Amino acid sequence: QVQLVESGGGLAQAGGSLRLSCAASGRTFSDYAMAWFRQAPGKEREFAAAISWGGASTYYADSVKGRFTISRDNAKNTVYLQMNSLNPEDTAVYYCAAVGAVAPGRYYSGGARVSETYDYWGQGTQVTVSS
Question: What is the DSSP string of the chain?
């Protein structure tokens, strides 16, 4: 089992940047594929970005592509989400998620973007972007 703790959320102005971090503990970090999801007030949780076990593959929602970058440091047991050019529509609670073993066919054919793929979740960190 792995425990996930997010940090780095806060208030930003439109056009600004924030970097979220998710620290993992409990198991070998490189055994887990990681992702960021977000949930805005009154909306369902949605996919933002994902990164494979070794970091070779990354995936982004169309709404964040070109503005957000997901990365991981397996030596530090941490996954990051660098968020640039923020806009008010990015306001949400951001959740870190992890999955261990999953069929490669499932993961690489779209499963990386689906919340049901992930077994472990952090408590979330609030990001608020003012206009």
Answer: --EEEEE--EEEETT--EEEEEEEESS-GGG-EEEEEEE-TTS--EEEEEE-TTSS-EEE-TTTTTTEEEEEETTTTEEEEEE-S--GGG-EEEEEEEE-S--HHHHHTTGGG-GGG--EE---EEEEEE-
